[in-house]
Amino acid sequence: MRPKKLANKVAVVTGGSRGIGKGIALAFADEGADVVITYLSNETKARETVLELESKGARALAVKGNVGDEADAVKLRDEIQKTFGKINILVNNAGTIGKEMPLKDMPTEEWDKLMNVDLRGVFLVSKYLIPLFDSRSVGKIINISSELSLKGRANFTHYVTAKGGINSLTRALALELAPDILVNAIAPGPVETDMILADMDPEWIEKETEIPLGRLGKIDEIAPVAVLLASDDGNFFCGQFISPNGGAVFN
């Protein structure tokens, strides 16, 4: 049996109770990590995910909160410190897509809501969890961006701008923290998640599948990229963007 790549590591995955975040959390547990997830409101889903993580042998913790709220970011830090004492991996995954609309028609509240979760959340969680990284090993921060940050998209200026901000934050923080903590980003193409299938109309999904591979991606095609970056296999990645996107954009 091969050694597990994340044995004795503690990983934090924001928005880890569903979608890509849950896929990454489970993949980390498969590789021996203990896992902390955050969730916004659905305690049932969070508890189900904790049970799945525990079934893989992981110690698991779910912390409720809005990543864009500073008090919740502080609470997350305190809960982790109390339960695990340190972390080795942080995946800033929590985010929302927002409503498709022209910028001229976009309510300021819609813009602010998306920026609060998708960009401010990455800032706050990183700010408060960086001091918890175990100095005895190389730490890893993985920010979840989007292929749309690389090519843009009409009527999604709020989302594209937030993800572009994550890209810039990744570059700056990589320079700031290396070599002790390595910061990288994953910029997935369109992925089949419950949020996409529930919130986006069929026309949007059809538009998203007009790529060389002609389909949405799968969560288990994204999670292994996170395992690569989180493990020692990723120790020469710094400030990089990996974009599994089915050919939606060539990076």
Automatic annotation (TrEMBL):
The keyword Cytoplasm does not apply. Its EC number is 1.1.1.-. The keyword Oxidoreductase applies. Keywords: Oxidoreductase. It comes from the Bacteria. One of its GO terms (molecular function) is oxidoreductase activity. Belongs to the short-chain dehydrogenases/reductases (SDR) family. PANTHER family: NADPH-DEPENDENT ALDEHYDE REDUCTASE-LIKE PROTEIN, CHLOROPLASTIC-RELATED (PTHR48107), RE15974P (PTHR48107:SF7). This is 3-oxoacyl-ACP reductase family protein. The lineage of its organism: Bacteria, Bacillati, Bacillota, Bacilli, Bacillales.
